Amino acid sequence: MDSTPVNWEALDALVIDFAKSERLIDDSPPPSLSSISSSSYRWRLLIFQIRRSVESGDIDSAIDLLRSYAPAVLDDHRLLFRMQKQKFIELLRKGTSGDRDSAIDCARKSLAPCALDAYPEAYEEFKHALLAFIYDKDDQMSPVANEWSERRRFEIAGLLSSILRAHLQAYDPIFTMTLRYLISIHKGFCLHQGVSSPVANLTERLLLEERDPPATPQESLFEAPPFDEVDIQALAHAVELTRQGAIDSMRFAKGDLYKAFQNELCRMKIDISVLDELVHEYCIYRGIVDPDPTNSGERLHVASEMETADKMEAGSSISECSIITDSDKSVSSAQMEGSQTKLDPVSAQYSDMDVRYPCEANSLSEDCSTTRVRQLEDSRAFQRTRSIGTVDRGKRKRWRGRDETFEVASETFTGSCCKDGVGGATALLGCTNLDLEKSIIKNVSSRVDKYEIILGMKDLASEGMAAEVVEEINALDPDFFPQNPTLLFQLKQIEFLKLVRVGDHSAALKVASSHLGPLAANYSALLKPLKETLFTLLRSSEEPSGKHLPLDALATSLQVAIGRRFGIEEPQLMKIIRASLHTHNEWFKLQMCKDQFEGLLWINSLKEHGGPLLGDSASKSTIDTCTQGSSPATISSSNMRMQEDGSSSNQISSSDIGCDENAILKVMEFLALPRGDAIHLLAQYNGNAETVIQQIFA
């Protein structure tokens, strides 16, 4: 899983769209990636407000909001009856004589009329609900114990959310749906194959098992479905539905497969607080938001370090050392599981997983040397790198976090934005001693300096300034390139090709003889890339070969490598995406088909990657091995597109083993099997579906 290439630029675009759509960062222009997710933000706030009202038992407020902004939803008498019945129960739950009179009035004027034409069983349910007058809410053995259960609130709230999302087209941002889909496939694959997930602790916290109830159509469920069986089976297996559930979902979406798919994805519950934390960490790492701890967003991370900082004493030399945050610890634990001892630094540049920034202490009671820090701060390269980061920091956004403490309904449709807030972080720090808080910020500031160095190097590499990158890194850490020879080779490749492009062949050959040649002599895996690099000298009159160099890919690999040297692990979101994309590939290899939905969710863009510098498969494998999972394969987000064919070229299709599509669908339908299992069964019986079914039921 660690070697799966990922287009991090595509992920950047998805994450930025998510952060803008959810107003997590200060940004006035609307998101460019998904205008739908931007325009639906206020509708999502409305849905959240209605959901919160129902879950708290305030049915009247929810009905008022629906009448004001989505009156068509109340035309469904089935839904209206359920809400009126819940209102009746909530009035009785209050227990006062006045509320009891209000409940009687509700039953007479609202609930009984709805029960007459909601659905055939509604009137019997109405009479059954009247038993709540004489049975106490705490009586678990009463015939109306289920009616009294507060779980009914959450069921109705979830059902309303499902209906409103489809009715208002208020779908979640693409990133949220993509993450749900990839994680659900990842979990299913690991369960099906009996393998352990390296990111199980994260995925279990992020994607919850519970789902909102499905929104069902009003038509009869017994009529023949007018849908293609291929679409029914694709939807059923994509979001883990029964065949009837897929048919109902398609009918509710009026036959639109992709709308039905989105409806079902949004039913999956995700822990928003965990998601925001992962996105925030990723945005800081990638330089999307400012990591300055004096900003409100960063104080969320500062709060998590209070326990460590509490053990520090004023004046301790440890205050100048870097602090590993909770997220770093959880990420490093996942790395330790798959680490193996390597002998060749070209095949494993990051085999030493314990490499940390030189001044980091092994324990809080142990003093650490600050010599290296002083050397860095005194070095000219360090100052230049910080100045680069300072300039770019002005372009970054400020993370303000999610604030749901205001009244959504009052601000939803007035055009005003959310109030700035830190989601409770201020409350966490409010009782903190001022001196302790300054100590925390001081230590995190040293971490911010490291981020600025790393991002500065990344920016230089992405701009093709290879010579400058090598100079700066050698000044920062002379031992870096001996531990990472492939990165040095790639940077010198960039420098060589730039010189060839401008026609300076003598300087290019000097770079090749001084750097590329010795590296290839020491590491045989680099010999073939060297030959292809030199071959560009013969094509100097044609289109420059360095035009399409994967500079962003190299910059990402460099960022990960330098970050680990500084004791900063890659974000946890990177691990989730890499692992889930790997299982996505493997799952659809088992299914022997391509994913119909990967274009809709940008999964194909996340998988799109440029080759190594000169398209050499050997050098690609070397790069992938050396980065230990940090994909060097990245393309520009401007080149991303929603393409139909995103399947891997090495996937085996059903036609390769002589299976008819109708036979596959018949076996899938009758035996409720995944596509891959149905194909394997058909292969055993010469593609005859009837024989397979007879053998199973014999």
TrEMBL record:
> Where in this chain does the entry annotate a coiled-coil region?
none
Instruction: Report domain CTLH positions.
Output: 47-99, 450-507
What Pfam family is a match for this entry?
CTLH
Q: Which InterPro entries match?
A: CTLH/CRA, CTLH_C, Ubq-SigPath_Reg
What spans are recorded as compositionally biased (Polar residues)? Answer: 626-641
User: Where does the source fall among the domains of life?
Assistant: Eukaryota
Q: Where is this region: Disordered?
A: 626-654
What PANTHER family does its record include? RAN BINDING PROTEIN 9-RELATED
Name the UniProt record assigns to this protein: CTLH domain-containing protein
Instruction: Record the organism.
Output: Salvia divinorum (Maria pastora)
